[in-house]
Amino acid sequence: MEIGTDIKRAANYLNDGDVVAIPTETVYGLAASILSEKGIQKIYQLKGRPNNNPLIVHVASIEEISKWVEVWPEKAKILADAFMPGPITLVLPKSNKIPHYVTSGQDTVGIRVPNHPLFVELLKSLPAPLAAPSANPSNATSATQAKHVVSYFKNKDLPYVLDGGACTNGLESTIVGFEKNEVVIYRVGAITIEQIERWVGKVKRATTKKHTLTPGMFTRHYAPKTPLIMTDDLDAYTKQYPEAHVAILYTGKKKKSSNAKITYINLSESDNLEEVGQKLYATLLALDEQSYDALLIQPFPSTDLGITLNDRLTRATAKK
Ligand code: AMP
Ligand code: MG
């Protein structure tokens, strides 16, 4: 496995039908050309991803989207103009130029215009869009730095990691669908529901049951190996398990521990949830390398990015 910033090298592998890890503003991805069935199958195999979980298709510009979708509802256009390039994925009826092996047989495609400069430059140099899910084994915490991808896939057949630095959002894209003129949020993400509602009015949130084909919504996902506990009452936990070595993730004014068993990890001194988003996965992955008995965190207020952070934490804490 090679790691570097060589777009031509990455493009060569992709043009050969192989898989390359790519940086985005959300999380790192494992990419293959939508025209390479072999490459797409290799993504599923590398991740251990179930075949019924479709991949997001990435294109270099909003104009490109029109080539790959059949219908562009008015509200989808509004959201594209408002948030693209950026961390939003639109689920639209696919054109028949997108092979079914990319969409797990569905007639819709999740499509997105990323805003990471290296990734956009790579897309512009290629003859077709790239399909890419997050660059982590299925259900594990997403990678937000090249070194996370390396540690996940170092013993696997992944030839190249395009290193674009740390992801600026650090949280997955918001996935939005359109059902009978209604805007439906399939997965909350880096663009908040409030931001979306400012452009298209009230939206609906999909329930897991009804949208079984959006496994970003599977209960267990984004999970570190160390048990992660989300609770309002941190004291109750530390009192109940006084022998446990725990790390407490928090925001706000710096805290110092007077108890050798408890380590405090600050995610943002200024309570900035964007900063928390940027750091969350990298912090969980780093803590996973240490031998804590548990990681503790309080839920965030349930508005704006707090909704996304709580969603990811809930899935990362859910029992198998
Ligand atoms: P990942 O790239 O690992 O974050 O996963 C991508 C997410 O996008 C998964 O949860 C997919 O189920 C979802 N997705 C991709 N395409 C579609 C689609 N056509 N309809 C609904 N969800 C989709
Ligand atoms: Mg994922």
Walk me through the structure:
With 320 residues, the chain is α/β, with parallel strands linked by helices. It folds into two domains: 2-205, DHBP synthase (Alpha-Beta Complex), CATH 3.90.870.10; 228-317, Threonylcarbamoyl-AMP synthase, C-terminal domain (Rossmann fold, 3-Layer(aba) Sandwich), CATH 3.40.50. The protein is built from ten helices and 15 strands. An eleven-stranded mixed beta sheet has the order 1-8-2-3-7-4-6-5-9-10-11, with helices on both faces. Strands 12-15-13-14 form a four-stranded parallel beta sheet. A hairpin with a 2-residue loop joins strand 9 (174-179) and strand 10 (182-187). The chain starts with a strand and ends with a helix. Residues 53-54, 56, 91, 103, 106, 108-110, 133-134, 172, 175, 186-187, 213-216 line the site of adenosine monophosphate.
Q: Give me the number of helical elements.
A: 10
Structural class: alpha/beta
CATH classification, class level of the largest domain:
Alpha Beta
Chemical compounds bound to the protein: adenosine monophosphate, magnesium ion
Overall pLDDT confidence: 94
Q: Work out the radius of gyration.
A: 20 Å
Q: From the structure provided, what is the oligomeric state, counting identical versus distinct chains?
A: single chain
Output the strand order for the largest sheet. 1-8-2-3-7-4-6-5-9-10-11
| Record field, number of beta strands | 15
* Uncertain parts: none
- Approximately how much helix is present in the residues? 25-40%
- Name of the CATH architecture of the largest domain: Alpha-Beta Complex
Largest sheet: 11 strands, mixed
CATH fold-level assignment of the largest domain:
DHBP synthase
Which range does the strand content fall in? 15-25%
Order of helices and strands: EHEEHEHHEEHEHEEEHEEHEEHEH
CATH homologous superfamily placement of the largest domain? DHBP synthase
